[in-house]
Write a structure and sequence with these properties.
By secondary structure, the chain is mainly alpha-helical. Helix content is 79%, strand content 0%.
C-alpha cells in the first residue's frame, strides 16, 4: 500500500517550518564548498569499504590455508 503525498511543494504545505527547512537545504546543496566536502567524505567511505572487503578476503584466505588437506577434502 502506498501513500499519496498531499502537498508536493514546501509552499503548498502551509508550514513555515517546512518552508524554512526547504530553503536551508536548497542553500546547502547549492554551496560548492559543501558539495566538495560531501564528495570527499563519500570517496573516503567507499575507500574504507573497499579496504574492509580486502581485509575480509585476506582473513578468509588465511583461514582456508590453515585447514588441513584432509579436512578440505570433506564436504
Amino acid at each position: 500500500m502506498t501513500r499519496k503525498r498531499r502537498n508536493k511543494t514546501p509552499e503548498a504545505s502551509g508550514s513555515e517550518t517546512i518552508r524554512w527547512m526547504h530553503e536551508k537545504i536548497r542553500s546547502i546543496k547549492s554551496n560548492e564548498e559543501v558539495g566538495i566536502k560531501f564528495m570527499n567524505a563519500w570517496e573516503e567511505k567507499i575507500l574504507d569499504r573497499q579496504e574492509a572487503q580486502k581485509e575480509e578476503r585476506e582473513q578468509g584466505d588465511r583461514t582456508l590455508s590453515e585447514i588441513s588437506p584432509a579436512a578440505r577434502g570433506r564436504s
